[in-house]
Amino acid sequence: MNGRRLRSLDIAVIDLNSEYLGVSRRILMENAGAQVASAVAECVKDLGSKRVVVLAGSGNNGGDALVAARHLAAIAGEVRVVLISRTGEPRTEEARSAWEAVRRMAFSVRCHVVSGEEVPEEVRALIASADVIVDGIFGTGLRGPIGRPYSTVFSLVNSSKALVFAVDVPSGINPDTGDYTERVRADCTICLHAAKPFVDLVDAGVVTVRPIGAPPDAELVAGPGDAEVALSSFKGGVRVLLYDDGLELAPGAMSFLERLGVPLRRTEGEAFRIEAEGGVPFSTSSGGGGVLLVRTEGGRELKEELESAVNLSRSAGTPVWKLGRYDAFASPDLRKANWLEPEHVSVFTTGAMVALAALLSASADLHYAVGASIYLSRRALRETGSPPRDPERYVNALASEVKGQRGQGR
Questions:
Q1: Residue 354's closest CA among 288, 270, 299, 298?
Q2: Which of 183, 216, 249 is the C-terminal boundary of a domain?
Q3: Are residue 276 and residue 130 in the same domain, yes or no?
Q4: Are residues 205 and 244 in the same domain?
Q5: Going edge to edge, which strands form the sheet with 109-114?
Q6: Span 13-61, pLDDT tens digits
Q7: Does residue 145 belong to any structural domain of this protein?
Q8: Are residues 195 and 230 in the same domain?
Q9: Which residues contact residue 296 at a Cβ distance below 8 angstroms, ignoring those fewer than 6 apart?
Q10: Number of domains, the chain
């Protein structure tokens, strides 16, 4: 199918950044479930006479399916929900709310729980008798082998005569690689927000893409999603080489790296350039390779600034980071900026931001490394003010942001 592909980590960034912009994951779940129910209604004739069995796992994919069940209860002949969870309940707050709602719908929905390794006979018979099955067992977060009771449920679904609709990805399939050992065989797959890489690699039936109301800005903004993804892969212990041109970016970069305890080698150079071992170089020279650092001209609105950065990136043949105001970053295909946190007005704090980006680029995708550094370095300005009266206090605040996010498993 045509269109772009988004990996599971891209979706995780969009979810967190949507929340940062004021669109909660609960809203996204509500929209996703409504879209799944709509897709089922469009594809199934005489839905009012059909038995629909919704299989929900314990994560947010299961939450999407539970919301779909609530919508389908108004238009299907019969709706049964089977929650498959070792604890007997969903594990996320959003999914728990969706589960509580359908549990209270005693007139229109009957609920069942599978919490052990064995699938009860009642649930086996239910799956075998279904006309329509909604597969919301596993989503884009699936990793590792499939055990019981999930493998048993997969087998029951695949041997049924029901029309099977998968929410986002057929359960059991790695959404990024298409790999699987056991899987649900779907007749239709409803990809939410965007198609995932697996659609080009395995048969997922008829694949459609449905919007769920995530703001377009969620992919653009440098926000907490970028920080979580970039820091989750950051291992530390990376050596950094810095070329100091005697100007003002170097002191902030060196001070921050020293505060983190990063092994740093400094040498004099005609242009500022910083590069972490295994990472991407950042340089004020167009011949420095990697990311070209330029100062923003000022006065432009966000859209104009990003367009300017994209055009400059295309003409320079390299990613461009326009330092100042929005800290707009652009490569020919990707953009990042922030307009919600305090602005850098000091070259010292800007230098620290660039150093963090160089460090994170050793283990994260470049645009997420830059996005994380923009967000975290600006967020630290909430504590110190901009410009900070005490540069060392700022360095400590930024280091705390980095260590704090990593300490939360991010």
A1: 288
A2: 216
A3: no
A4: no
A5: 109-114, 78-84, 51-56, 132-136, 163-167, 188-192, 206-210
A6: 999 999 999 999 999 999 999 999 999 999 999 999 999 999 999 999 9
A7: yes
A8: no
A9: 305, 322, 323, 324, 325, 326, 328
A10: 2
Cα angle at 181 between 58 and 121, to 5 degrees? 55
Specify whether 101 is located in the same domain as 39: yes
pLDDT 10s digits, 301-359 = 999 999 999 999 999 999 999 999 999 999 988 999 999 999 999 999 999 999 999 99
CA end-to-end span of the chain: 33
pTM above 0.85, yes or no: yes
Residue 142, Ramachandran bin (φ over 0: left; ψ between -120 and 50: alpha; else beta) = beta
Is residue 253 situated within a structural domain? yes
Q: For residue 128, what are the domain limits?
A: 8-216
Domain shared by 133 and 275, yes or no:
no
According to DSSP, the β-strands at 51-56 and 132-136 are: parallel
CATH value at residue 156:
3.40.50.10260
Same domain, 207 and 235: no
The total number of residues written for the chain in this structure? 410
